[in-house]
Write a structure and sequence with these properties.
single chain; about 375 residues; mainly alpha; 7 helices; elongated
Length: about 375
């Protein structure tokens, strides 16, 4: 039970003196007293909770404070028993636990907490081990499914596709199914042999334990501690192997990434090769056309040279007409020019007359249309 706390006010003071004492305090002093009382209340509640758990654990049925078997605390801890000095007739508020009894109860609760924590830790460790095993199983199954999917795409979907019929060859699917079932049967046989070996090893360990028990070789705490050390070492090696596996997986991932990068570079080089090949073919085509054009040009040059020599021979044999012929041609040219200017003036006059007649005709039509209507 919780001890009675001292609130700083004596039991003999009257209500008037308490009011005077409270009125002399400021807000900071009252807040400090309230915080102190709240802290003491929380400590008392925690202490009562510890005592209640202790009594509930050992099945103590009490109806009042006088019925609490205080010596049971010493019996649980194995300490010496002492007679209770409580006198019958005292009120419940005068019966208190000693500091030694409180420490013993606290020690029992601490041991119980440690036991519960160890039990929870053991259960949690088992759950974590099971979850880790299930995760590893899921990872293995996921990798297996990915490999099977890739193999199925490669063996059945890609290779068994018939272009003309837009269908898949059933023989390759049946062959892939038989091969897959054969592989699974092999894995099942390996697991069965491994299971048989583990059962034999377990049976051997049980026989050894039974022989040790029959011979009186009982395992001691040192043996369990040695097993714990060996288990810790095995777990450390397993963790090291798991870390190594993770490093290898990361290395494989980086290698795969590098391989993909090199594949991309290779694809780019292939595309560059195709582009260069096409460009070379275009250049060869242009070169062939240029050769053909050069042959054509050579023929044209030869022909032009022949025509030029022919023209030179004609120029050498050409005779210029006389001056009188030039004068007569010039007079004819001037006469034709004068007649052209005359005809142009007549044409302009005719166009002006035509424009005027068209305007008159339009006016006549506008004047005659209302009379017809």
């Amino acid at each position: 039970m919780a001890t009675t706390t001292d609130t700083g006010l004596s039991s003999g003071e009257s209500g008037h003196n308490a009011d005077d004492w409270a009125s002399t305090l400021n807000d900071e002093g009252l807040n400090k007293i309230i915080a102190d009382l709240n802290a003491r209340r929380d400590a008392d509640l925690f202490e009562n909770e510890v005592y209640q758990r202790f009594f509930n654990r050992f099945g103590f049925k009490v109806s009042s404070v006088e019925d609490i078997p205080v010596q049971e605390v010493r019996r649980v801890e194995g300490g010496p028993r002492k007679k209770s000095k409580s006198r019958p007739g005292l009120s419940d508020r005068h019966l208190k636990l000693t500091w030694e009894q409180k420490c013993q109860i606290a020690q029992v609760e601490c041991d119980e907490y440690r036991h519960e924590m160890a039990k929870e830790e053991e259960e949690t460790s088992g759950i974590i081990s099971n979850l880790r095993a299930r995760m590893e199983d899921i990872d293995i199954r996921s990798d297996d499914l990915g490999k099977n999917k890739a193999e199925f795409k490669k063996s059945v979907i890609k290779d068994a596709f018939i272009e003309g019929r837009e269908a898949y060859a059933s023989e390759k699917f049946l062959r892939y199914t038989d091969e897959y079932l054969r592989q699974k049967d092999t894995v099942i046989d390996k697991l069965r042999l491994s299971n048989t070996a583990l059962r034999a090893q377990l049976r051997k360990c049980r026989d050894q334990l039974r022989q040790k028990e029959e011979m009186g070789e009982v395992l001691h705490a040192v043996d369990f501690e040695q097993l714990k050390i060996d288990n810790a070492q095995c777990l450390a090696r397993i963790d090291e192997r798991n870390r190594r596996i993770q490093e290898l997986k990361l290395m494989a991932g980086r290698t795969l990434q590098t391989l993909n990068n090199h594949k991309n570079v290779l694809n780019q080089l292939h595309r560059e090769k195709k582009r260069v090949t096409n460009e070379i073919n275009q250049r060869m085509d242009i070169s062939n056309r240029a050769v053909n054009e050069m042959a054509t040009v050579r023929g044209e040059i030869y022909e032009e040279k022949y025509n030029n020599e022919k023209f030179k021979a004609y120029m050498e044999s050409y005779r210029v007409p006389s001056v009188m012929d030039f004068v007569h041609v010039r007079e004819e040219y001037n006469d034709i020019t004068r007649r052209e200017s005359t005809y142009r003036r007549k044409l302009k006059i005719a166009e002006m007359a035509l424009t005027r007649h068209r305007k008159l005709w339009a006016q006549v039509q506008r004047c005659t249309v209302p009379k017809d209507t």
